[in-house]
Amino acid sequence: MQAETIYAAVNEDFLSVDGLIKNQLFSNVPLVEKIGQYIIDSGGKRLRPLLVLLVSNALNATEKHYLKLAAIIEFLHTATLLHDDVVDTSDLRRGRDTANAKWGNAPSVLVGDFLYSRAFQMMVELRDMDVMSVLANATNVIAEGEVLQLTNCKNPDITEAQYMEVITAKTAMLFEAASHSAAILCQASAETTSDMKEFGLELGIAFQLIDDVLDYQGNAAEMGKNVGDDLAEGKPTLPLLYAQQQGDEAQRKLIRKAIREGGLEQLDAVMSAVRKSGALNYTIELAKEYATRAAARLERLAPSVYRDALFALTEIAVNRTK
Q1: DSSP code of 153?
Q2: What phi, psi does 43 have (nearest 5°)?
Q3: CB atoms within 10 A of CB 34
């Protein structure tokens, strides 16, 4: 199943979510709407709201409350992007200037705060304390993950376990929250709700592992970001950690220096060392393991085009080039 087919399965719902997002961006402060609209319109896969829509339809949701939930998830994700770009001093996302590059750091942070608070206003409207609990916890864990990643930057002694802790909190948690809260809202059984929670978590980990691979073999034009960004920021991602562990003495010294200092002065040499070490294949295989685990969580769902689309997502997550 192609990506276009996956989105087509919930196309009508997606249109409704887009309308809801635009309506909820209203503000008496013009700059808030301007920046919010800019970041929302900048494209992206919208995988997290897609998860809400697919899981809800796969579970035969009888009410359309899940549309608001999908919009909430997208607002939470967009807020984290605005904040991340400031922290990472990024100037390119999805092939466009970041909001902080266009308007500055302060407006970007404050509009991110607005999107968070608007998301929580919408959560209250759902009137489901279990969903609110999941999303509030996820928001907290994501913030912790961002801080943890910041403290790990430029530290070549980070372990693989510490790296996995960061990506689980920073990225996979919102995937988990999307599929988990959708199952709760649909009043699914405890067993199915647990399956959907774990599905989102494992899919999110697989997605981030491949993201970190693409930083060393992706195409900047295709990805809409700068290849080598993680290296420039001194982020010790799994490809770097594995290459450091498996490389010879010269390669280890090179990679440790690159992590400690950040920057792209040694980009070609580091990328060569990463490729020669087998680090990319190692990371891809680990991503496939998580994708396989995620797919197994779908076995108990009733057959449907939506379940097929969820299965397809686990394949696309590890076979993408952007």
Answers
A1: T
A2: 95, -140
A3: 16
Helices 105-126 and 129-152, interaxial angle, to 10°?
150
Q: Which two tokens stand for residue 32?
A: 């808030």
**Burial class of 190 by CB neighbour count within 10 A (0 to 12, 13 to 18, 19+):** exposed
Extents of the domains making up the chain: 3-318
Cβ(142)–Cβ(174) under 8 Å?
A: yes
Beta bridge partners of residue 96, listed in sequence order: 93
Q: Which amino acid makes up residue 124?
A: V
Domain 3-318 belongs in CATH node 1.10.8.60: no
Give Cα 286 to chain centroid, integer Å. Answer: 17
pTM of the model: 0.92
Q: Poorest-confidence range of 13-22, 117-126, 206-215, 222-231?
A: 222-231
Gap between the Cα atoms of 248 and 269, Å rounded: 13
